[in-house]
Amino acid sequence: MDIDALRSFLAFVDTGSFTRAAKQTYRSQSAISMQMKKLEEATGQSLFTKEGRNVALTERGQELVSYARRILSLHDEALSHFKHTVHHRPLVLGCPDDYAESVLPDVVALMREHLPQQTLTIICDCSTQLRLMLDQGKVDVAILTRAPHAEEGYLLKHDKGVWVHGGKSLENESLPLVLYEPDCKFHSAAIDGMEKQGRPYTLVASSSSATAIKSLLRRGIGISAMAVSSVSPGLTISHDTSLPPLPSVDIVLAVAPVPHPAFGSHLAAKISQSFQATA
Asked: Which residue intervals define the domain HTH lysR-type in the entry (predicted)?
């Protein structure tokens, strides 16, 4: 089976979209369609099915996912083995700002165990923007938040949302919220939860900067919603059961479909396993 076609296939699996798969692999949607047709011809199986207006994998398509990951992992590992002495461009690693203190250092340490000579360029942004950068080839590897049980990326850890404040009692009639940007899962869950409860609230501030949010919380200016991994010293997790429930999330390591020469899916899988073993 064609390696590039398998990359496009997995790009669709991870993103759930042929449009994003086309952007990530620098191909037109018609070219992606041709690749998928060739995969079906090569396997002799129907890999896709229509579910209303959406396209989903058939049972055979789901079986191909694990084979495709193993084939690409071995392919990338072989290339990396024979190219490891070559000097490569900096590897661009993306990370949400709220994981820069907790998840990022361990991931970088594991990367350096495998690639001690590789220079990194680290970009901090939200998961939504990092996905766009992966699509555009501006980021090689990214730490992302995904919905539990989604296919995207290689699992680093399961996490859950919690309400967090600076340790001071918030007696306000209208609960002051200090949240991450609107495309953050916890932002929408917090606002939707308040609305459903009919609970008065004030959105004091929203920001993509974890440093800004945490400094406001420590000053006692409000309460926030974030993953347990994002909670820093000086912040207190609230156990107030009257607050709206927050979603669970997975933190994963995603690799661009056209990988950096030194970092392919095989290395992402190894880092995933090592991270979980030491978590």
From this structure: 1-58
